[in-house]
Design goal:
The chain is built from seven helices and eleven strands. It has a domain of 154 residues: Alpha-Beta Complex (Spore Coat Polysaccharide Biosynthesis Protein SpsA, Chain A), CATH 3.90.550.10. The chain is of the alpha/beta class. 27% of the residues lie in helices and 19% in strands. Strands 3-2-1-4-9-6-10 form a seven-stranded mixed beta sheet, sandwiched between helices.
Length: 247
Amino acid sequence: MLIRWPDSERLPVFVVVVPRTLGWLEPCLKLLPEEVPVWLITNGLSPAERRRLATEFPRRHQFALSVLPGSFAKHGTVLDLIVEASTGDFVLLDHDCYVFDPALLAAVAWRDAEFMAAIDLAGFFTINAATGLRFPRTHCLIIRRDRFVELRQRFGIGCEKAEATPKGMAEMLRAIGLGNHNFPPARMPFYDTLQLAMSAALALGWEVRWLEASAEDIAHIGGTANLSNQLNQVRPGTRTSRPAPTD
């Protein structure tokens, strides 16, 4: 699958859709103008859910990942597939992220050092306390594909989580204060989705293009995939702990 778009002013928008989240997805899609090319990457959806999407959003492209029944692929693995399949830059958008100003999704005239664009709004990034480095969260990102291809070629890394710093990258990440002693989100003992690639990019001196936005321009709910799937598994009357939000 290769993704090519003739209109350079409209970046393709990829939304990864997991089971039991269509209620959160529908407002996301309805807010996007029809002329914005959207690809729905369905990750473990039931046939009924895929039919519902095709009926309610017939003009949105749909691609179903091949996974075992009752399972879905890791988010980072799906992002790697999108990078591999695309032929240019693209937008990653969470199913529960609502874009009220579509101008945020416009193509970027990149400066040479930039590798992605992210939303400059509280809740859309985390700050590493020890270094002060800002790490975009994956709610809404514009990916400069050629930079991510370069990272894969140079370091053999992609978008997936990593439990430890690769040996060949330890020295370069230590130079900016990161590594096994200090992961990007200090509260987690690992690199979350996309964070190893982001760390490598920052160590190379690459930069994030921060897009100014307000809560009137974009909003993210968060934790809905965990919540929807947990509620599906809990029997009536069973007590459960609150699910942790995901990036």
